[in-house]
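Working notes for the structural subgroup meeting. M.R. asked for a predicted model of this chain before we commit to crystallization trials. I am recording the input and output together here so anyone reviewing the notebook later can reproduce the run.

Input as submitted:
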Amino acid sequence: MGSGIFEYGTRRTTVTETWDVPPIELSVKVLPGNSVIKAQLVAENADWPCFHNGVSAALAISPDCKGIDSSWIVFNRPATLNPEHGGLLLGLGLNGHLRSLMAYHAFPYMEPRHDFTSCGLLLGLACSFAGSQDPLCTKVLSLHTHALLPLGSAELNASPIIQSSALLGLGLVHAGSRNLRMAEVALSEVGRNNLSGVELFEGYQESYSFSASMAFGLIMLGRGGKQSSEVDRRLLAKLRRCILGDPTDDSSNAIDTTMTSPGATLALGFMYLKTGQREIANMLEIPQSAFEADHVRPDILLLRVLARSLIMWDEVNASLPWIETQLPPFLQKGHSNHRKTSSMEIACELAYFNIIAGACLAIGLKLAGTGSELAHNNLLFFFGVLLKASCSSSMTYEGKIRRQSARQCLNVVTLALATVMSGTGELNVLRRLRVSHGQEGAGVTYGTHMATHMATGILFLGRGHYTLGNSNMAIAAMCISFFPRFQPSPSDNKAYPQAFRHLWALAAEPRCLMAKDVDTKETVYLPLRTKVQGPQGPYTQRLISPTLIQPYETILQISVDTPRYWPVGYDLTDPADKAALVKTRTMYVKRRAAYLDYNTDPKGNRSMVITAGSISGLDHYYDLLAAAEPMSLPAADVEHIIKTHAGTPDLVAMVQLFSTDSKFDKFVRNVLVECVSMDKTNLIGIYVSMWLGLHGQEDLKVENIAQVSMIRDFYSPSVFTHFCMPADKRLGWIRPNFVTSASRKISDREISESTISAYFSTWQWTPVIAIYLRRNHVPSLEFLRVMKDLVQRSADEVGVLREKVRDAARAYASALQGQYHVDKEGGVGEIKLWKSESIDDALRIWRSAA
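Returned structure, recorded in token form:
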């Protein structure tokens, strides 16, 4: 059992080969002589363990595995049917692979009337078609259900275990459908006390009744109270008689509630699951006095508390007060803060154990797969309480009963604890399971080992890739699988069919979210931030991938929560994002070159900024042009950093090429470190081009001046913020102080008077005049020619002419600006006015020439 849960969905098949079922190894090697002792088992005690082994082998096959069709299933059929192959069929069905089984391949499996094969195939088909109401699957199951055979047909020569499996299969296929015909048939079988043509039915009556009850509960799953009709009232009245009995009915066909009550109680919980109908929950009374406790079986109290919790689902919580409210007042006074129960009467103590176990199981179902800390702590507390009670050494008759009941309740709490922490591998739970594993002695039975192994497997479900959900179908499947009736021996199926223990697989959900590096395709550790919709509103949860996450239906957003990787997020309110994440369960992320991954550098001490700073005090705010430069990185250190964080041969070769102490080589090395650290290596060429443009041997070209001015204007607050999102606080790609320094270098260049005079008088162009024109925002040549002609013909004074020229320049700029789109919120497209100093220069030259 445990190995099948642990290996669930972790392997893939090869369609050209058979799927091997590993044998159960029972031989023991005794040291130091190395002698081998083989266990001698009775065949009937080995059959069901072999069946479970076959199920475990099949459950290891991934539900997403392709190529498993009807031919492959028949290809794996052994010459002689055996329990392992029956288990293999059930495991394939639990993974959904029996959907491809053809009818003409399915019926030959039924002909030999082999119990294990028939049971595995019927249940497997039902699990593959769960909730689908498939007509062909319904026909196959109906052929093995006595109540659905037509009148006058031959007696059904099928064992009780086969018919029990077929009944439950019908419930699975029609789960949540509210098919009243099927529901009436299933309910009519709950109280059946004889079955013609079936030998030893009396010994399996409880098992058959339980299967029929579960079939009814599954068909009506969560549909009770949705519609009020005479049929619903009749079904509820009959189900109530199966739970509480009918004192007025003393006939030979009266319902035996000792057989029907456990299953019927749970079926009522299924029928009214999450409906919150208190009047229905009050049908399942909890004794309010010690006298009443003497008249109710303790194990029935466990199921009543569980069923009441299923109905009043919204009230279930993991707090200690809620658990204590499930205890009636007469029990709340006698447990001494849950530390001592031996002072109670035997009936009260057994009631206490079972009520606590039922409440713990309800918490486990409500918080399945959530890893809730509160549930974990409280369930661990009651695990200790029941463990202490189950280890009692009393040899009296009452002492043995107390110990056995505590052991059964401990099994339930163990499964509930593992359910909450499913897939997490939580260490405190594992420590307790290690203690429970391999126990022997009074009260420890085959069922005890099964519960412990199931809990261990659930704790590491699918090797941590899966967890348990709490949808309606998942809750029902876990209730059936964890039903608190643990067999004393491997061959016992009289009260509970062992094959039903594997239905937990219907509740398994793949919710392990992994992050992979988009470049290396390797799985990486990565802090994540999730926004989850809770009962009281959205809340934020921080996780580290790979990790199990909340159900996809409750998650609003998932995003990267670390500066080492570029920000990536999924908005799960968007169907496209949600479908992509559910399908792959993988986030592809890109690491920033300035950092190493968490596996290589857990504390971040080897990031590029820290490494470079520790070597030379690297200053990212240096403008790269000033004469008072900080200490630069040696070429060897830069080469080491580039190899560690980037590793591309072209960048390493570039470091080796520019390895001298010249100012340009230092500039290139600083730019390399900056561009690699900020993942902008494509800007290295731009930095170098700007340097060469500013430090060239010839005068600055017009295009270089224009580009620097354009970059400066773009990074101005009014423009740059316009192109960024309001919440985006990222810096510009080019270092802002470098742009400012380059612009200042252009502006501070001296322009001779002769050059200015030559331009305004004869329009003589020189490369250096471009700096003057750009710096003073001088209008176009056509405008200047018109202004020169008007000034030379005017007799006004200089002050008057200055105002007229300024007004003309302003009108000209407005006319030009009207030809472009101007953003209403900022200065995008704004044309600057001609400066006054330059106007005075022009007027002086024009008047002197006149």
